[in-house]
Design goal:
Pfam families: Gpi1. One of its GO terms (biological process) is GPI anchor biosynthetic process. By secondary structure, the protein is α/β, with parallel strands linked by helices. Helix content is 56%, strand content 14%. It has three domains: 3-250 and 584-629, no CATH class; 280-329 and 683-706, no CATH class; 372-567, no CATH class. It has a nine-stranded mixed beta sheet, with helices on both faces. Strands 7-8 form a two-stranded antiparallel sheet. A two-stranded antiparallel ribbon has the order 10-11.
Length: 706
């Protein structure tokens, strides 16, 4: 079976011609006995490494501990090998280098044996000692002959794979795939094999076939997830390696003026945000204690019932304000060593900040507009309420009491329903006039709530205010719905009586049943008046259903706007507009060269230990690693799908059928809001310290990562 080897090289190594006598650091990802991935994270000058072998092992061990646990279980960060750059034969290279290049070839030796007894390329001193003590049994030595006209990764016919030592045997045929990648960095780009917001769904069948179990037991040839994870951790590995090396070399730290200015800036920002958040914290705790006070329990219960939407949105906003310093802290640094995980964690933190910022900006715009136009808004509300009451409700009831649209209704029933409706409307209009002086204060309350807590809380308060102001319409609609639904149910039962059928509620079906003559006579006497009075009841039911549906539609529209404000990922949209590379969706390879590498019929005696390799061909492919990127719709769709998951075609169909049968339509869409967290009771001073320390720690983590 032909062996396969993929070498993942960073773009820096593929574009720099001055990297002589360098060391390669990264991971060996072994999938099977015939497939191996060599992921080069970074390179380091051989002269920068101390002569102490134990010190190098401590640095590698400390760097490996900084990596995610999922990567440590499958691959270990280690010293991969050595990289030498040989000049062309124009007279600049020494004889020893030429001999070295002629022995090693384009990608000299990649050995799995514990000692380099084959004579391919011996490392001396530190590297030889480390190779003997290393846990890994792999080693790679890369040598490339470059010229001034060609870059390192522009392969020609002289760039070839000489041979590989694999499990103690010399492999002459090996397919080599060299993949050049751009090192992922936080805030720049990274690689991903799946959609940004996708999550694997584990849906197992009841019984799996035997061949499926056998297929799952097989070891995959290509573990791309581990490779992509190591690529995303390459930048963090380089940073951790340098940081640990500097800590072992010296304990002092050089401070510059820029670092001092940055520290002072973050310190002032922490004080300002901590003080502002503490003010919000004290205000929120005051409202919470006041609402939970047992002095006026009936006030608390009434406010919870009347201002239900306001309390829910106020709780969501309060939890976001109280918990933001906890969201900002990064306790587990190993979980963000991977750029992909760090990007997702950062966006999750930024989503709370961006939602609060946009909500407060919209709330201030709306609140200031209401404060500057309070009188005109009051005048518009008075006129609208007057026209709605006189031109729609009263005129509609009077019209229904006569001959609406030429339909001849029952005069007595229409008069009773109309007079009851007019009396309820008149009573509520009288109460509305008495409460008219409070409208201006109500508008100011909405404005202050929007400025203080955001547009969502003020919009929820508007929904509750509309619901309370139209309570008389809701009551009339409930009463007429009760009459209409009972009338429909009675007519349906009497119709089944005439057909000789009876409803079986347990089996949800109609069964045959033998009724007596008396039952048929009573049924006929009841069926006729109910059927003749149905048009009168239906007209009033349709009128109040349309009116109530229009009011509920306005409330649902405001509720929809609140859900959109909560669900929209503002941080992701802004980052996508600035840097789209931070939202990858799958990888692909841009092939630069695909050909064969011709081997010599004979090789050096010292290399192959008096063995000869017949003339054969090994494939050599060079490609660049590229990424696909998510579109704006793919970013927004998962967020909106989660929020509006309760709305479906079946729910709309059931609501339409319920209207025809006399059931009340729902007054809410049932949209999902961010889940409120447990209420946090913490002293004001401790909360200020928590806010201050979270900002300072985030600044230190940012400085350390850079």
């Amino acid at each position: 079976m032909k062996r396969k080897c993929r070498i993942w090289l960073p773009k820096q190594l593929a574009s720099d011609d001055d990297l002589t006598h360098s060391l390669l650091f990264g991971w060996f990802v072994s999938h099977s006995s015939a497939c191996l991935d060599v992921v080069v994270a970074f390179i380091s000058d051989e002269n920068s490494i101390s002569s102490d072998g134990s010190k190098l092992q401590d640095v590698l061990l400390g760097t490996n501990k900084k990596m995610p646990s999922t990567l440590r279980e499958k691959a270990t960060f280690t010293l991969l090998g050595r990289y030498d750059l040989c000049l062309n034969a124009n007279g600049n290279s020494s004889k020893s280098k030429k001999d070295n290049c002629s022995k090693a070839g384009a990608f000299g030796s990649l050995c799995r044996c514990s000692s380099l007894s084959c004579g391919c390329h011996r490392v001396d001193g530190l590297l030889e000692d480390f190779k003997k003590d290393s846990v890994s049994s792999h080693w790679i030595h890369m040598v490339h002959d470059s010229s001034s006209e060609r870059r390192v990764m522009e392969f020609d016919s002289s760039s070839r794979l000489h041979h590989i030592h694999w499990n103690g045997e010399i492999v002459s045929q090996c397919d080599v795939h060299v993949i050049v990648y751009e090192t992922p960095e936080f805030g720049s780009h990274h690689f991903s094999l799946r959609f940004w917001n996708s999550s694997p769904q584990m849906i197992a069948p009841l019984k799996k076939p035997k061949w499926v179990d056998d297929l799952h037991k097989r070891q995959p040839l290509n573990d791309m997830e581990t490779v992509i994870l190591s690529l995303n951790c390459s930048s963090a590995a380089k940073t951790a390696y340098k940081k640990i090396s500097m800590q072992l070399d010296t304990s002092s730290r050089n401070f510059s003026i820029s670092c001092l200015i940055s520290s002072l800036t973050w310190w002032l920002l922490a004080i300002i945000l901590g003080s502002l958040s503490s003010l919000y914290h004290s205000l929120i705790q005051f409202f919470y204690v006041l609402s939970s006070s047992p002095i006026f329990p009936w006030v608390h219960i009434a406010s919870r019932k009347v201002l239900k939407n306001t309390w829910i949105n106020f709780r969501v906003r309060s939890c976001q304000i109280l918990y933001w310093p906890i969201f900002l802290q990064e306790n587990d640094m190993t979980s963000i060593s991977c750029v992909e995980h760090a990007e997702k964690a950062a966006l999750q933190r930024h989503s709370t900040w961006s939602a609060m910022a946009v909500d407060l900006v919209l709330g201030n715009l709306i609140g200031l507009s209401l404060l500057f136009n309070t009188e005109s808004i009051c005048w518009w509300i008075f006129n609208f309420a007057k026209e709605f009451t006189n031109d729609i409700l009263r005129s509609g009831c009077v019209w229904l009491m006569g001959v609406p649209a030429g339909f001849k209704l029952n005069t007595e029933l229409a008069g009773v329903l109309g007079m009851v409706s007019l009396n309820v409307i008149q009573i509520w209009s009288t109460l509305w006039v008495l409460m008219a002086s409070l409208i201006i204060y109500l508008i100011r309350v909405v404005a202050i709530m929007g400025i203080t807590f955001g547009a969502t809380v003020s919009a929820a308060f508007v929904i509750d205010a509309i619901t309370f102001a139209t309570f008389h319409i809701t009551a009339l609609h409930w009463a007429i719905t009760l009459v209409y639904s009972h009338q429909i149910q009675a007519l349906a039962a009497l119709w089944r009586l005439f057909r000789g059928r009876k409803l079986n509620p347990l089996r949800q079906r109609l069964d045959s049943y033998g009724y007596t003559v008396k039952q048929h006579v009573v049924g006929s006497l009841l069926f006729t008046p109910l059927l003749l009075l149905l048009p009168t009841t239906s007209v009033f039911y349709i009128f109040f259903t349309i009116t109530s549906t229009a009011i509920n539609s306005i409330c649902m529209l405001i509720e929809f706007a609140i859900s959109v404000i909560h669900a929209t990922p503002y941080a992701e949209i802004l980052i996508w507009l600035v840097r789209r590379k931070r939202f990858p969706s799958g990888v692909w390879f841009e092939i630069e060269r695909n050909g064969f590498e011709v081997r010599s019929s004979t090789v050096s005696k010292s290399v192959l230990d008096e063995h000869t390799i017949p003339e054969k061909k090994s494939s050599l492919m060079v490609s660049n690693l590229r990424s696909n990127f998510l579109s704006m719709g793919q970013i927004l769709l998962p967020h909106y799908t989660t929020i509006y998951s309760g709305i479906s075609a079946s729910s709309l169909t059931s609501s339409a059928r319920g209207v025809l049968s006399g059931k009340r339509m729902p007054s809410k869409l049932g949209l999902d809001l961010p889940p409120p967290r447990p209420w946090m009771h913490i002293p004001l001073r401790e909360y200020w310290t928590l806010c201050h320390s979270s900002i300072i720690s985030s600044a230190e983590n940012k400085e350390a990562s850079s």
